[in-house]
Amino acid sequence: MTVRKTHDRSKFLPYLEGGLPPAETEKLASHLETCARCRAEFAALRDGHTWALKLKDAAGDMAGIPSGPLTDFAPASTSPSRSRWMGPFPRLAASAGTRAVWILGAIVLVQFVLLAATNFDRLSGRRNEAPQMDFSSFRALTIQEVPSNTEPHIVTQGYVQEVWQDAHEDTLHFKLVADPHDPGAFVVCEILASSRIAAPRQGNFVRVYGISRYDAQQGREWHEVNPVLNLAVLKH
Amino acid sequence: MATAPPFTPLAPDVERALVLAAQAGDPDAIRALYDAYHDRIGAILLFSIGDPVQVQDVLQAVFLKVFRGLGGFRFRSSVFTWIYRIARNECLNHLRRREAERMPLDAILGAREEADTRRPANPRDGGLDRDLVLRDAVARLPAKMREVIVLRYLEGLSYEEMSRALGCRPGTVASRLNRALAELGDRLAPMRRLL
To answer: Which residues 49-108 on chain B approach chain A with CB closer than 8 angstroms?
Structure first.
C-alpha cells in the first residue's frame, strides 16, 4: 500500500459507518493505531459525525415555522397563464386596497426620483454619470463559484460568448463563460442602457462587477450578474 | 448509514399520483403536497437562514414557484430534489438580499459605550443548550458544508440522491461531507462534554 493510500481520509467515513470491506477495515484500524495525525483527523470527523447524528433532535425544536395560508399561492390551477405573480409580498399584495397603496407609493417614488435627478443635473451639470463605488470590496469569484455565493456584490471574469439586446426592456445581455470550449459553466450578465457601460464584443475576455442574482423563470434558471455595475475588457 | 428522516416522506407512487392530480388542478392534492413539504423544506432552510419569520417568507416564495412551475414538472427528478433546488436558489437569493440590507452595528448603536460589554457565556458555566449549540455550529458552516450535513443527517439522503439535489458527482459529495464533518467536530471540540 502506498503512503498516499495509507493516509486516505476518504475511507474515514465509510469506516465509521461500517461500509468498508473487512480487509480494508482492519488495515485502516491498524493504521490509526500508529499514525497520530490520521488519528487526530479521524477523531474530529467522528465527533462531527456524532454531533450530526443529533441533528434531527435539534431540528425537532425548530418546529413551529408558521404555515402561510395556501390561498396565498393562488394555485387553483397550476397552469402558468392562470397563476398570478403577486410580487415578493404575496400577502401584502393580496387585497385590492393594499395594492392601491403600493401603486400610489410607486407613483410618488417615481416622481421623487425624477425631481431629484432633474435638480442634480441642474446643480452639478453632470448627467447620468455612473456613481463612484468601491469595487475593491466586491467578492471575487470564479464563474463556477457563483451558484453557491451568498454575497450581493461580486466580481467575476470570463469570455463573452453571446451578446443579445432586449429591446423591450432596453437592456443588453451577454453570456460569460469560464472556458469558450465548455459552455457548461456560465453566468448571464445584464447591462442597463442607463448605466452607459460599453457593450463588450463576443470573444472578449472581461472582468464584470455587479449584483449576483438567480433568475428562476422557466426556460432561464440561470445565475446572473444583474445589473453590471462596471466592466473591464482585459483581452480583445 | 441510513438515518431516518424526521419527516415521513410520501410513498413514491402516492407522491406521483398527487403531483398528477395537482397538475390537473385538484386543490386537495395541492394541499397534500404543501403539507408534505412545508415543514421538511422549512427545517432545511432554518439551518441556513436562522430566523423562523424569514424562513416563512422564503417558503412563501418557494411554494409560489413550486405551484406555478408544477405544470411543467415531468418527473425527471424526484419531487423532493425539484423542490429542494428551488428552495436552495430562493435561500441564496434571500441571503444575498439580507447581506445587502445589513447595516454596520455601529451605525445603529451609535456610541461604543452603548454596546453590551458583558463577557460571552462560558461553556463551563453550564446551562448551555446542546441543540442550540449544534444548530448554531451547523448554521455557521460554509454553505457547501452545511448543505451536505443537513441533507445527509436531517433528510437521510443517499450519496446518489444528494448528488442529484446538488448537481455534483457522488464522489464530490462524499469528500465534501468528509471535510464538513471534520470541520464540525473541530468547531464543537470545546463543547464535547455536551455530546
So the answer is: 52-53, 55-56, 59-61, 63-65, 67-72, 86, 89-90, 92-93, 95-97, 99-100
Q: Which three cell numbers stand for residue B77?
A: 427528478
- Of the candidates A17, A44, A73, the beta carbon closest to that of B182 is on A44
| A8 phi-psi bin (left φ>0, alpha ψ -120 to 50, beta other) | beta
A210 neighbors A228 (Cβ within 8 angstroms): yes
Q: Do A218 and B185 touch (CB under 8 A)?
A: no
Residue B153 has pLDDT above 50, yes or no: yes
Residue A114 reports pLDDT greater than 90:
no
Q: Poorest-confidence range of A141-145, A163-167, A198-202, B97-101? A: B97-101
CA-based nearest distance A64→chain B, Å: 8
- Mean pLDDT taken over chain A: 74
Closest CA to B153 of A121, A154, A212, A58: A58
Q: Does B119 touch chain A (CB under 8 A)?
A: no
For residues A9-13, average pLDDT: 86
User: CA nearest B134: which of A63, A64, A14, A60?
Assistant: A60
ipTM: 0.74
**Which pLDDT belongs to residue B112?**
45
Integer-rounded Cα radius of gyration of chain B: 20
Distance CA B119, CA B116 (A): 9
B120 burial (CB, 10 Å; 0-12 / 13-18 / 19+) is exposed
Asked whether residue A121 carries a pLDDT value surpassing 70, the answer given is no
- Structural contact between residues A83 and A90, judged by C-beta atoms closer than 8 angstroms: no
Is A184 in a helix, a strand, or coil? strand
